[in-house]
Amino acid sequence: MSRRLILVRHGVASFQATSDFDRPLLVQQYSQADLQQTAAWLIEQKIQPSAWLISPAVRCQQTAELLTELAPSLSIGVPAEKKLTEDAFYLASYSKLLSRIEWHESGDLLLIGHQPGLNHLASWLSASPIDEFLNPGQAFVLNLPDDWCGLAENSANHVDYSSAN
User: Fold this and answer.
1) Where do the domains of the chain lie?
2) Which of these ranges, 29-43, 53-67, 128-142, has the smallest mean pLDDT?
3) Which InterPro entries has this protein been placed in (predicted)?
């Protein structure tokens, strides 16, 4: 049985904050529309992750909350302890993200984070070239081999991008 890794870039963030970490989403202007498109696309793809990994940054936490509201099926069967937030996810490099996802037990995994780590991870894993960066609020899905442990470069099949701009 193959596994899917769902990479979601946080929605459009405000620059009205005291630090990068504390930047909230611009929900009323851009993020809501982008995340509505992404949520609908994830439902269409029949995405039902068994766990979430979420950057602790405010904009990523808000993205997770909005996705849960817009696509409740993404959270069905995902207990609170499987929605993980770790300090190491904030602006994490692809190698740090890879080391964490390799410990995932089974099922699909949804990761909400930042650039450039998300694209670097997708590019490293994908057997096909990835020429575009994920835009805010956009998702990317990779099909992975059966085992999460020991993922190798070029071992995943690129599936598709959501249509969020």
Assistant:
1) 3-161
2) 29-43
3) His_Pase_superF_clade-1, His_PPase_superfam
